[in-house]
Amino acid sequence: MAAAPPCCAVRVRSAGGGGGCSGLVLSRRPALVLCHASVFAPFLRAGPAAWARPAALPPAALRPCPRLRVVLGSETGGLRELDARLLALVPCAAFRRALERGFGLAERWRFGAEEEAGTDPRALPWFAWLRVPGLDAPEGGWAARASAGCLRKGQALLACGSPFGDLCPELFLNTLSRGVVSNLAGEENALVLTDARCLPGTEGGAAFVPSPDGPRVVALIAAPFCWKGAEWVGLTLLCSLAAILRSSAGVLGEAGVVVPPVPAWVAAVPASSGQDPLGWTALVGCGATWGSGVLLAPRLLLTCRHVVEARTPLHVTPASGPGLDAAVLRGRVVFATEESSPFDVAVVELEESVPGFVPPCLADTFLPGEEVSVVGFGALGRACGPSVTAGVLSAVVAVAGRPVMLQTTCAVHGGSSGGPLVSSRSGCLMGIVVSNTRDTGVGATYPHLNFCIPITVLQPLVARYRRTGDPGAFAGLNRVGEGVRATWQLQQRPGPPSKL
Predict the structure, then answer these.
(1) What is the pLDDT of residues 379-411, one digit of tens each?
(2) Which 3 state secondary structure label does DSSP give 160?
(3) Among the four residues 17, 324, 462, 467, which has the most C-beta atoms within 10 Å?
(4) Sheet holding 226-228, edge to edge
(5) Phi/psi of residue 326, each to 5°?
(6) Quick one: average pLDDT of 340-346?
(7) Residue 24 bridge partners (DSSP)
(8) Are 466 and 458 in contact (CB under 8 A)?
(9) How confident is the model at residue 492, as a pLDDT?
(10) 32: helix, coil or strand?
(11) Are 87 and 31 in contact (CB under 8 A)?
């Protein structure tokens, strides 16, 4: 980032204890800091029930009213602390509605560290406005902002926050993490998911997008850890700054604060090869089972065997563009590998063609360390379309000189199976996602260690099938050597059984 981010840490203290979080210095005239309200939970007079209120909470809603301090970096390189006072706790209505739509109770979403109860989900849409007179600057203004409505999936983001809140700011104040926009939901993208890796205490920190004249604040961190059932999703939950400002208009107006409009600005999209991985990705539903798939032709789709193994009626929903309704197409499985095969693959023919489909280019080389993306219907996929996560190609596993497995650091979740792995450099399809990693010894899931089948394994078979129409073209996937089998069993023989 060209300039130091306008972020800080917030200390909340009383005689009985307190806590801390990250914050954003949004204005210097008057000086205002915006942070997440969950740090005030121990002080609510009405207890957790207060989070269900539809209107803002004044300072009188706290008992006792804690002492507030803002910790910032100084121009000379040290730290400074300034007193602050609470203006109000404000719920963001658009973010709350997006949460209710995307994070269903049946899917058992939790927010916070695994060993803790986590953040009360009712507190997620709440933010706190602080007035910091010691930061007033006559020549100051508002931080550069952008509307989340301009965001696109896969776009680069920088997140800034202080891990562990106000603990040891000498080390942790305003650390940065890079990621991409993974998914979007709600009015004008009130809810944003990013794969930028943030830690507890970064709640209230900010997410920035690059622009020609420097980074612009686009959202605030609402929750750095997301859990879906027992699975760590590895994504960070953001709330649009523009949505917070709309919900805060009354509170700021009463305080005499005039919010300048967000200048018209459209995010710069980096040049690409014209390939659109979102256009190749489809939701594959088979009874109660669902996952992702890759379209290779207007009526041909690849997915994983375990996605369609129920053998019930198959429905394929290609990803739709913004503002367009998704079409649901019927399909039939023309080939699925045997359970004894190390390759978890199924081939699906659609009853109708996908209109306007542009086939992907196919990669023929794999370079460890190159930047890649995974697209799939994991996490919020069924509610909000496919998600995008970014990382690097961490390993290329070859047997007899032929790549048979790709590993990446992209965050992969339940529902991503069958989705495309894409080269960020060329836009070419590199493979299909099979699974992330689960340690059966401790029951932990690792979304950033995952496995894909290289497209070079599948492309010759697909070409033969399209030429002959004979599903037997894929039969070779069931007849592979012991080296390939050992690789996909995640163990080498001889040796102790793998627990992965």
Answers:
(1) 776 778 899 999 999 999 999 999 999 999 999
(2) strand
(3) 462
(4) 109-111, 226-228, 231-232
(5) -80, 135
(6) 95
(7) 7, 34
(8) no
(9) 45
(10) strand
(11) no
Which tokens go with 396?
Answer: 């290329």
Residue keyed to tokens 């002959």: 468
Question: What is the rounded distance in angstroms from the CA atom of residue 471 to the CA atom of residue 242?
Answer: 52
Using the predicted structure, report yes or no on whether residue 81 has a pLDDT greater than 70.
yes
Q: Which residues contact 453 (CB under 8 A, 6 or more apart)?
A: 343, 344, 345, 404, 405, 406, 431, 432, 434
Q: Tokens 């602390």 belong to which residue? A: 81
Chain Cα centroid distance, residue 440: 25
Predicted confidence at residue 2, as pLDDT, reads: 46
- For residue 239, give both structure tokens: 């709330």
Residue 307 φ/ψ region, left for φ over 0, alpha for ψ in the -120 to 50 degree band, beta for the rest: alpha
Q: The pTM is what?
A: 0.91
Task: Give dist(CA 115, CA 113) in Å, integer.
Answer: 6
Cα separation, 272 vs 378, whole angstroms: 25
CA distance 422 to 416: 13
pLDDT in tens, 88-147: 999 999 999 999 888 765 566 777 654 444 568 899 999 999 999 999 998 889 999 999
Which residues form the catalytic set? 306, 344, 417
- Using left for φ > 0, alpha for ψ between -120 and 50, and beta otherwise, residue 489 falls in alpha
Of 265, 255, 153, residue with least CA distance to 214: 265
- The answer to whether 298 and 357 have CB atoms below 8 angstroms apart is yes
Do 223 and 236 meet the contact criterion of CB atoms below 8 Å apart? Answer: yes
Whether 486 contacts 462, CB under 8 Å: no
1-56: pLDDT as tens digits: 445 579 999 999 987 778 999 999 999 999 999 999 999 999 999 999 999 999 99
- Residue by residue, DSSP assigns 242-301 as HHHHHHTHHHHHHTTPPPPPPPP--PPPPP--S--HHHHEEEEEETTEEEEEEEEETTEE
Say whether pLDDT at 273 is over 90. no
The letter for the amino acid at 303 is T
